[in-house]
Amino acid sequence: MSGGSGPPAVRNWSLPEQYNLSDHELRKVEQRAERRWALKQEYQRILFNPYNSIKAEGGTPFDPAIQRFTSTRADYYHYFKPNRKNFTVFACVYLIPVATWCWYIHRKAFAFDQKVRRGEIPWRYRMKTI
């Protein structure tokens, strides 16, 4: 295997050379990588177990870390603080396009109404041009 995929033993790059780590920090990084890889393997083993559907335990396994992440993303409103950047994004994504679209439709409807009032559009074509 090449790159950083797979268990920590098959990586073809060196952490101490790349990040200038001490031996103690290197051991901690390797332990975390091994733990993360083992947890990933366990999660995949539970997730892809074909006998879960027989035991009516289908679906995804409960993972507290994923639950915390999902809950944090769902409750982001509580951490929202209005500022200029937020308002600018809101204005550019919602206010300006909606206001522009309303102005365009109003202008088009007003021009059509004026043409109808002046008699430029015959009666039989009035409903087709809106």
Automatic annotation (TrEMBL):
Primary location class: mitochondrion
Transmembrane parts of this sequence: 87-105
Keyword annotations of the record: Electron transport, Membrane, Mitochondrion, Mitochondrion inner membrane, Respiratory chain, Transmembrane, Transmembrane helix, Transport
Membrane topology: Single-pass membrane protein
Recorded family membership: Belongs to the complex I NDUFB4 subunit family.
Gene Ontology CC: mitochondrial inner membrane
Cited PANTHER family: NADH DEHYDROGENASE [UBIQUINONE] 1 BETA SUBCOMPLEX SUBUNIT 4, NADH-UBIQUINONE OXIDOREDUCTASE B15 SUBUNIT
Protein name per its UniProtKB record: NADH dehydrogenase [ubiquinone] 1 beta subcomplex subunit 4
Native source organism of the sequence: Ramazzottius varieornatus
Pfam hit, one: NDUF_B4
Cell compartment(s), UniProt: Mitochondrion inner membrane
